[in-house]
Amino acid sequence: MKHLLGIEELSRDEIEMLLATAEEMHDVQSRPIKKLPALRGRTVVNLFFEDSTRTRSSFELAAKWLSADAINVSAKGSSVSKGESMRDTLMTLDAMGVDAIVMRHAGSGSVRQAAGWVRASMINAGDGMHEHPTQALLDAHAIRRHLRANELGDLEGKRVAITGDLLHSRVVRSNVLLLNLVGASVVLVAPPTLLPPGVENWDAEVSHDFDSVLPDVDVAMMLRVQRERMSGGFFPSEREYIAGYGLTAQRLAKLKPGACIAHPGPMNRGLEISSAAADASQSIILDQVSAGVAVRMSVLYHLLAGDAGDERRD
Amino acid sequence: MRMHHEPRAMFSADDMSWAMTRMTHEILERNHGSEGVILLGILTRGAPLAKRLAAIAERENQPLPVGQLDITMYRDDLRSNPTRRVGRTILPAPIDERTVVLVDDVLFSGRTVQAALHALADLGRPHAIQLVTLIDRGHRELPIQADIVGKSIPTAADESVRVRLQETDGEDLVTIERSAL
């Protein structure tokens, strides 16, 4: 693997390899010395044209725990705000000799385009409404750990509901692709105004009735509703949104035993997810955060540690 | 000088079993029993070997906690090869202030052991580290020696030593063959 552009480019074997390595990386977080030497001398740049807390800091930690040097460039405070083009910014960083560029950008497909311009490995940290592959990987990793901890088997045959603003979400596309690859089924729950175009061709069921879906899912994954969308005619009011699609304390009670609650963050507490649900014992939201570092370590390791080529057999 | 093209069997299942028993006794003698001693097998084949040593010690009522060590991330040739699957490091207990006995199948250049020493340094500070290897084939590239050896087999640099174990390969056998260069 040279780049990580999206889940759509990955085979099931590659996904399993990335997740298996993430399992081993997970242990490093609980060690007193959080350092592995695998990427000593490599350099990773976080290039974020959009704001981020979790993704950016977990990529930075992942690089540092693997002994790589990591720097952060954000659009604010860089030459991007002076009007430098995305291509020139990338070429500039590439000319410095960096090994990987982790990029988030509002343009769908921008990271794939960037991969054609630079020598470095490109990693997609979210491109517009297209994909966010490491988020889908960390979701699968966190759900899998929850299932194992509760002796509920593996992802195969499990049912995941993804609820919220699916129209503006890049997480949902990556998740539908990945969950199907590992044998889980997905039901998308949203008002008709917040469904992505072409959703009928996706490998997922669609429902507008959250209450009927809840009792038979293994995972209730809630996505953030951007408050600014409320004034955009997508939905009449916050109150109506909550009534139809919020994971309220009442709905929490409808989940079957062993089901878990996920949210990629940042949360709007009291809108798509109530505090009762966010802080419930079934919530794996903070586990998703720690899974994020493990999964990104795995991605950086497989992209940068070895010589380019196929997986070596022992 | 005889030329060997066929693999030569150097160490049968019986030889191996006998050597393992002797090595276990040497570990216990050297450490005055099993108190404070941890066995760590270096993946891949060091892990089942360490388990066997522990099982023999168990029969002597000398329980030795046994774990395994993955050194993939610590290899100095990581860059010259495609990435390998990372294995799992399992510590049966914290290694601080214990005596860690590293177990491997073949001691050759010493680079694997060097990587294992680096890995241990990131996991804690053992009181002492000892090295046990089933086969010592010579050709060291680093100042590293085993404390306890199953069998020393002189080899030519262009030969390779293959250790096969019941747990990983379905039989116990050590052979030497000409490397297909």
Tell me about this structure.
The complex is a heterodimer of chains A (314) and B (181). With 314 residues, chain A is α/β, with parallel strands linked by helices. Chain A contains 12 helices and 9 strands. Chain A has helices at residues 12-28, 54-65, 86-95, 110-115, 133-149, 171-181, 210-213, 227-230, 238-245, 249-252, 275-278, 285-304; strands spanning 43-48, 69-74, 100-105, 121-127, 159-163, 185-189, 205-207, 219-222, 260-262. In chain A, α1 packs across α5, α5 (133-149) crosses α6 and α5 packs across α12. The longest helix of chain A has 20 residues, at 285-304. The two termini of chain A are 19 Å apart. With 181 residues, chain B is α/β, with parallel strands linked by helices. Chain B has one domain: Rossmann fold, CATH 3.40.50.2020. Chain B has helices spanning 13-30, 46-59, 111-123, 166-169, and strands at 8-11, 37-42, 66-69, 99-107, 128-136, 148-152, 159-164, 173-178. Chain B has a 5-stranded parallel beta sheet, with helices on both faces. A 3-stranded antiparallel beta sheet of chain B has the order 1-8-7. The longest helix of chain B has 18 residues, at 13-30. At the A-B interface, α1 of A face α3 of B.
| Terminal Cα span of chain A | 19 Å
**What's the count of strands of chain B?**
8
Proper CATH architecture of the largest domain in chain A: 3-Layer(aba) Sandwich
CATH 2nd-level architecture of chain B: 3-Layer(aba) Sandwich
CATH-derived topology of the largest domain in chain A: Rossmann fold
User: What's the CATH C level of chain B?
Assistant: Alpha Beta
- The 3D shape of chain A can be described as globular
Shape of chain B: globular
Low-confidence stretches of chain B: none
Number of domains of chain B: 1
Strand percentage of chain B lies at 25-35%
